[in-house]
Amino acid sequence: MEIQRNKDVKIPVGFRFYPTDEELIIHYLKRKVYSLQLPATVIPELDVFQTNPSDLPGDSSEKRYFFSKRTMNLNKCSSGYWKSIGKYKKIVAPGNNQTIGVKKSLIFYKGNCTKTSWVMHQYSLVTSFSTQKITMPEGEWVVCCVFRKKVKRPAMTLAKNISKIASPSCSSGITEIS
Amino acid sequence: MEIQRNKDVKIPVGFRFYPTDEELIIHYLKRKVYSLQLPATVIPELDVFQTNPSDLPGDSSEKRYFFSKRTMNLNKCSSGYWKSIGKYKKIVAPGNNQTIGVKKSLIFYKGNCTKTSWVMHQYSLVTSFSTQKITMPEGEWVVCCVFRKKVKRPAMTLAKNISKIASPSCSSGITEIS
């Protein structure tokens, strides 16, 4: 009746790793960056940006989380590239307005510039944050959450949302860092 | 870094009880009905049909699961009633086509016949199932999953879905059993 989800604790059947943004930043990413013990061994280390999303380990029907190193202008893999879209979303500490991290969305485009349904939410710690600039060190750990956007027919609202976040022209495979 | 979710195991932060329909039927409801040990003490017993959804214990922002006894024509509480909508959905055992349970959706209506955003998914074991008849014993345990349907503006698709499942005329508070 139990599923071995990590080395140090057995998670009963029916439980899944669905952290809030705040839990992910405070209890997993921040502790990873500072080399502290994690609550559970549930986020593997993987160079997500250099791996085709369809080749990522784990259940592709669920959101998959990975610790990956921040890279500059290296978002291309053999079959395509991740394109950053939208703006950074502040993640604030519960109970106050202190920014503890940021969340960025990316869409995977095939090499022939074809938008796919693969989405990544990249979570980063911030060393300083203002409306003008986000400072994040190169080579630092980030958490990447990769999943396939479900598109139902008819799904006018969903289609609108996807077109919104995938609207940037397909002219570059470079992720905007700030 | 741990949250006490039940008596027999500590669930690390970030994990939540999000069972599949099959997990809920096989590992929780079936074992409850047959008085077998459950994987985790995470589903409380409560007479959901006699309780106003806004008064249910737990985090109202998440899906809440309860073991409740099946009742006939007793879906009214002080502030309104649960109205069954749609048809039973078969839940089949993984790997074969054997029906192990059924899932039924209900909408909560206020006493003045006003449809609300409260939704219940009721999971039941079946003793026999055919396209003609579903046999479930009165007074047997069922699992009720209660949550508030999120309605975004604009949300044409979601609005369509809600209107579909809430379409029955508001003429009765009696849940269809078969």
TrEMBL record, chains A, B:
| Entries under Pfam families matching the protein | NAM (PF02365)
Q: InterPro entries of this UniProt entry?
A: NAC-dom (IPR003441), NAC_dom_sf (IPR036093)
Superkingdom in the source lineage: Eukaryota
Which keywords annotate this record? DNA-binding, Nucleus, Transcription, Transcription regulation
The UniProt GO MF terms for this protein read: DNA binding
NAC domain residues are: 11-149
UniProt xrefs under Gene3D superfamilies: NAC domain (2.170.150.80)
Q: Which GO terms describe its biological process?
A: regulation of DNA-templated transcription
Q: What is this protein called?
A: NAC domain-containing 83-like
* Natural source organism: Olea europaea subsp. europaea
